[in-house]
Amino acid sequence: MRQHEGVTEPLLRASSVKLLDVHRLRLVEAAAPCLSPDDRVAMDRAWEKAVRANPSLFDGPVAACTRLEQEGPDGLVLAWARTTYRQYALRKVPSATTWLPSLYVSVLQPTDDGRLLVGRMSPSTASPGRWQLPGGCVEPPAGDEPLDVAALHRHAARELVEETGLDTPPGDLTPWLVARGTKGSIGVVFRAPSRPASLLLDRFAALVAEETALGRDPELDRIAFVRSPAELPGLGGDRVDYLEPIVRRYERAYPSA
């Protein structure tokens, strides 16, 4: 993979998951890289193939990461660009040189007894059957609105209610860390206040019933609670690459939760 202009190699192109402790995060908008004719053809073919396999996919707007670099001892600068989900299809083309890592938010939702909520993506999503934390790709702001940390708070709160039915004010979410995935994906991870597991199960059941009554598939078709990485294999199926490292970090940070 050739490094495209402006990308910081150690943070966006390393091959293992890295969890970054960040006290200051600054987001700046950048231009998306221009696609070569070959990459554009390959992108369209990969996207059409993906849509044939999963007709529920849509080519909506999304914010992708173009650069991530250290700023001082405890800060990061994250440059992002406006694109669409179609561009992410380039990640499945080995010869592509201008694909962009995704930018997403995730939420750690603890239970009162110290477990973490994880969810399985439903068949109608882009990653059916995959276990992950509640969250999703970041969308670019409308008009002149900024994409900043406050916007990421709001986006994370919206993902949490859309996927679990739990309505949490954005201000109650605490930035916890930044995760960089094996293919350069960048996730801003928030921690929500602890809630009783029974409440989480009830809210999720109500959400699934409401979506089903409207003829829609919920984004998550199952939730579970885990206390340690040792419990993850028992879930069965695929898991997003960041899940095990984050659960391990949480177990160390809150050993008596």
From TrEMBL:
InterPro entries: NUDIX_hydrolase-like_dom_sf, NUDIX_hydrolase_dom. Transmembrane segments: none annotated. Residues 98-255 form the Nudix hydrolase domain. It comes from the Bacteria. Pfam families: NUDIX. PROSITE patterns: NUDIX. This is Nudix hydrolase domain-containing protein.
